[in-house]
Amino acid sequence: MTIDFAFIFEAFKEISKVLPLTLFMTITPVLLGIIIGVIVAFVRLQQTKFFTPLLNFYVSFFRGTPIIMHIMLVYFGVPFIVDVLAKALKLNVQSSSIPIIFFVLLALTLSAGAYASEIIRSGILSVPKGQLEAAYAVGLTFSQAMRRYILPQAFSKSIPNFTNVFIGFLHATSLAFFLSVKELTGVANIVASKNLKFLEAFIAVGIIYWGVSAIVEWLAHRLEKKVTAYNKGGI
């Protein structure tokens, strides 16, 4: 058996065409997940009677179960809910009109929110309590103190963790092929099936995944150095 290096190059070019879609499927859930994570982390830290147990369950469930299961639950569950509500409310809406990629993005966003909430919560708890007390002493409200001092320090300390989450969800987009979404791994399978050169195709897609991951790690390292250079202990 010999490796067809020419086909690796051809597969690389063909697979690279869907890289923008894969990046969109990675960046969107991670950014939305961070927003969800901030809200969930705040509520859990406030220890409210009703919402905290629900959010604890949300975080525990999505961190304790595989992402492929989240995708399948959303893919089969959301259409069922939409159809039931449409029938009950007599709305002219059909679940079949919802793009499949929506289900993938929703599942990944919910998963990212659970992971981000723990990262943000641990980041906030790592900031010395004296920072918040000092903010109160100079007349800042809780939200102002969080926005100006606590969250920036928490995020700066959490950059490596967010980098890991981004790379992890970059890899998780490959699961979208189960729903026939043609991302990197899906196209690699399609390209390889034409002449059964699966080794070459997956070498090509592996190079793409590794290259993107390396770039993200480099950018995160640069950002971490820049942020920590200006973060000298808050107030």
Blueprint of the fold:
Blueprint: H1 5-16, H2 19-46, H3 51-64, H4 67-89, H5 100-126, H6 129-137, H7 142-172, H8 184-193, H9 198-230
Helix pairs in contact: 1-8, 1-9, 2-3, 2-5, 2-7, 3-5, 4-5, 5-7, 6-7, 7-9, 8-9
What do you see in this structure?
The longest helix is centred in the last third of the chain and has 33 residues, at 198-230. The protein has a single domain, classed as MetI-like (MetI-like fold, Orthogonal Bundle). It is an all-alpha fold and 235 residues long. Helix content is 80%, strand content 0%. The mean pLDDT is 90. It comes from Lysinibacillus pakistanensis. This is ABC transporter permease subunit.
Structure summary:
The protein contains nine helices and no strands. Belongs to the binding-protein-dependent transport system permease family.
The helicity comes to over 70%
**Whole-number mean pLDDT:** 90
Summarize the helix and strand pattern as letters. HHHHHHHHH
Low-confidence stretches: none
Global morphology: flat
User: Structural class per helix/strand content?
Assistant: mainly alpha
State which percent range the strand residues make up: under 5%
Count all strands and give the number: 0
Q: What is the CATH top level name?
A: Mainly Alpha
